[in-house]
Design brief:
Elements lengths: L1 E7 L1 H7 L7 H14 L3 E5 L5 H13 L4 E7 L2 H10 L5 E9 L2 H8 L3 H16 L4 E7 L6 H13 L4 E6 L6 H14 L7 E6 L6 H10 L4 E4 L13 H10 L1 H4 L1 E3 L6 H12 L20 H9 L27 H10 L6 H17 L5 H7 L8
Helix pairs in contact: 2-3, 2-12, 3-4, 6-7, 8-9, 9-10
Bound molecules: 3-methyl-2-oxobutanoic acid and zinc ion (ZN).
Length: 385
Amino acid sequence: MRRLRVFDTTLRDGEQSLGITLNVEEKLEIARQLVLLGIDIIEAGFPASSPGDFESVATIARQMKGVAICGLTRAVEQDIDLCAQALRAAEHPRIHTGIGVSPVHMAKKLMLTPEQVVERTAAAVKYAKKFVDDVEFYAEDGFRADPNFLVHVLEAAIQAGATVVNIPDTVGYANPWEYGKLISFVKENVKDIDQVTISVHCHNDLGMATANSLAGIIAGAGQVEGTINGIGERAGNTSLEEVIMAIYTRRDEYGIQSGIRPKEIAATSRLVSRITGVPVPDHKAIVGANAFMHASGIHQDGVLKDRETYEIIRPETIGVPENTISLSARSGRHALQHRLQELGYDVAGEELDSVYHSFLELADRKKEVFDQDLYALMGDAGAGP
Ligand code: KIV
Ligand code: ZN
């Protein structure tokens, strides 16, 4: 089995795009859950972007053990200095530095020649290596770069000491067969590529982020980057839970495994949704409220005969309890408490009385009370599945 590393950037690429800023405590709470989930690398932020982000990265680096903590930088010494400082207490620090490599990024954003971009690449990686062993280089907008130039830049990064090379589809422009082909091209043409890990980092502008990431992994990438619930810039990043379960459900065929504990997926999704305030759509793959619902008569009949007729993943696998109790105004306190317990809430005594009272008010208005209603009742509106 080939081991796939899972790199979570919910706290950097995810948070960066939301127009909201998570405080240190909120970021820490998410980071703790990411460790429980089994994430290999947590990208905790972009320390040079603000004092708050610096503090978040430094706090996560101090407190999280048994996981690599990463900070993002531009290919600029000042950014790298701050990142190294923020990561000082990390058990496994990683600096993620890089630069735009597509024609439009080089000419219009950076106003640099390709040669200057190669020089900056080598200089930034070399400088980051003074502080940490583990340096990841990102070739921003790598998918839209000239592939031969991309090879040149990646060779410069590897020669300067990069341990991981990240080839982002920054604007979500790729199709799976093209992205897979690019990763194969990099594998075949970049000198010493076998000495480093190739990472895939996709955006979802055309709804392809999961498919593109899988194509890259199958072509040989050893690390996948993404966010929980797919939150991120514009249409979002790759949904890690989707890639993880796509690999997990077919692991024997693909010969690939990750260190993820699938049972923590639902709890992680709920937590990220609650803390960021970004709801999970009902029909979202894996973590949407309807992901394990069977609505039509034919499907219900099939599932009652054999779950495999319409279910490729058992909900329990990702930590969603099988729903066997239908809650209504006729249900008692015990049934409510039982279901809440299955959803991860321990309520008893006066708290149970109060929740039960609100539950009855709701049940009088609705025929059936669903898990989403219970999450809302418990102050977790927008949580799911
Ligand atoms: O999408 C992207 O190119 C990025 C890099 C900064 C890694 O997020
Ligand atoms: Zn990105």
